[in-house]
Amino acid sequence: MARLISQNTWLRVFWSATSFPDKPKLKPGMLARFPRSDWKVYEAILSIKDEFPVVPMFSDYMLEFPSDYKPMRVSPTAKLLYSSENDYIYCKGNSTKIGEKYKNIFPVAAQLALISEMKSANYSLGNSYIHDLANGKGKTGNASMWRWCSTDHHLAIVDEQLTRAFGISRERVAPIIHAEQLQLV
After folding, report:
1. Rounded to an integer, what distance in angstroms lies between the CA atom of residue 39 and that of residue 87?
2. Cβ contacts of residue 162 below 8 Å, gap of 6+?
3. Distance (Å, rounded) from C-alpha 168 to C-alpha 162?
4. In this predicted model, what pLDDT tens digit does every residue of 31-53 receive, in sequence order?
5. What secondary structure letter does DSSP report for 104?
6. Would you say 133 and 150 are in contact if contact means Cβ atoms under 8 Å apart?
7. Model pTM?
8. What's the angle, vertex CA 128, arms to CA 145 and CA 176, rounded to 5?
9. For the chain, which end, N or C, has fewer CB atoms within 10 Å of the first or last residue's CB respectively?
10. Cα(153)–Cα(63) distance, rounded to whole angstroms?
């Protein structure tokens, strides 16, 4: 990269990669781990950052393989994806066509909640949702909600890792209080 980019010519360069598996072959009830090699490679890049004219910024495909962006019309499978510091964790349940239908997500969340890397419910909104599912609280949600909570957690963990990698300190800020419509006038 240093041969391609001259000093002070580019403001930002983004390095994008994924090590999320293309098509993991899992049966219902299985939990599998896949190394987050994309993050490990980025840590290696940061370890020699002085050799780069511009330090590349991190970008990943989160919890998807790039070819999975094609829309499909199929009944969803109850599944949750989770990121730890070192692994992508894939927890698969039954199809929503069989058994308890969308309640099939409850045992998936309960299984995920047992892993040692599981963060607390207040780590992110996604974690809170997963903990509620694991405890059988609230509604089951749907495939979009399951993807949202997994993605929300992934963004929180990557933010934490980038903050630590770049030595950025985080100040606690007061929670946002949403104004009522008439207060905005």
Report:
1. 9
2. 58, 168
3. 8
4. 999 999 999 999 998 998 888 78
5. G
6. no
7. 0.84
8. 95
9. C
10. 10
